[in-house]
């Protein structure tokens, strides 16, 4: 680790080595060389010739393949200092290693042939890794939801006590948002196409010259390159670059996942404050330098922090897409070098944290039950009122008495600091004609969670199980947190 210059925390602290490799120089420049090989092979296979003599030979292609991986960075770097052009510097460096093929490297192409096609390939690989981790987050959450599907807990609206739910049902709310993200990711990943090789303004004019105006042959170039690079298609039309709206769509996928992770992490942080649910806390972990007793939700806080970055980062590609002039401008380049890789590195770290947190979530049923029972008398009043009406009471009169007694019990709790004594107050009121023992029988939390358990079962079986089965080869990922 360098100590005398800035190093991105996304690399040093948060992102996995796997994601870092996808955005590494090795991945980038090896892909450039694969694209140059694919172009040369395509041109040869389509019969590119001059005066009946093939322009590209098998010997040249074999030479290119022999040096597809061993990039001479020093030569490319020295050349770039002279010519100030990264693509032409690497064309030159590749040619130094491949003297027989030097003259046919990049034939008919423009810089975006390697730059933009590589960007699509890199984003595709990065989305595959994101999908892998997202599927595992979904699997972990599904297991958690199933385990606690029948555990009653106090639900909140406006962070005020509301009708009870279950711990598992609440987890399905987090799970459903990640499932929606997976749907969006699958769509965008499945719709990614290569730029192909369309020339400086997207007209394929250079190939019209190379192939002597043979339209039928030129139509075969992009599909052949796409197939060689593992893609189904190229975008049918383009300027010099693929539409920057593609980057916007990809960044929006990352922002959507970040929003889902942020929401879950906020809920966990609030639940940890209530001492109902707690994220993993390691044996020797320190929560505070001053307060030794503290157990801070640092992983969930980090999820929220990184998620805000990713959500804001999605604005960069959108603004770039909106401000491209005609067939292209270069103000997309510097911004793109930052926003796309760092968005992926950050979401990679977020998903690792999500895996770690959900896998180790600790639930405290006794604390949950205590809080629920302290609020349950208020929530049971409708049932109590119905029972009293069935016993001969007047619904409107009983409603008013419940309101008055609830206000008194609430005042005892909030002003006097006493326990909730609403049941005792109701039992003492002759209008209800119910004993305290009868009232306490209505206090079973399971009576007030509605169809929470059944909803969890239905959701996991009908929605999540098919997704996990379809992606079972991706399961089994365990996250390692660096710090």
Q: What is the mean pLDDT?
A: 93
Order of helices and strands: HHHEEHHHHEEHHHHEHHHEHHHHHH
Secondary-structure class: mainly alpha
The 3D shape can be described as elongated
Count of beta strands: 6
Largest sheet: 2 strands, antiparallel
Walk me through the structure.
The protein has 483 residues and is mostly helical. It is built from 20 helices and six strands. It has helices at residues 9-14, 17-22, 25-45, 58-66, 73-83, 86-97, 111-147, 167-191, 205-210, 215-228, 245-273, 298-313, 315-322, 333-359, 365-379, 381-390, 395-414, 422-427, 436-440, 452-470; strands spanning 49-50, 53-54, 152-157, 160-166, 277-278, 362-363. The chain has a two-stranded antiparallel sheet. A two-stranded antiparallel sheet has the order 3-4. Strands 5-6 form a two-stranded antiparallel ribbon. A hairpin with a 2-residue loop joins strand 1 (49-50) and strand 2 (53-54). It is elongated, with a radius of gyration of 31 Å. The model is unreliable at 288-294 (pLDDT under 50).
